[in-house]
Amino acid sequence: MLNIVIFGAPGSGKGTQSARLVEKYGLNHISTGDVLRAEIKNGTELGKTAKGYIDNGQLIPDALMIDILASVFDSFKDSKGVIFDGFPRTIAQADALKAMLAERNQEVSVMLDLEVPEDELMVRLIKRGQESGRADDNEETIKKRLAVYHNQTAPLIDWYKKDGKYSYIKGVGTMDGIFADICAVIDKL
Ligand code: AP5
Ligand code: MG
Question: What is the pLDDT of residues 13-39, one digit of tens each?
Answer without folding.
Answer: 999 999 999 999 999 999 999 999 999
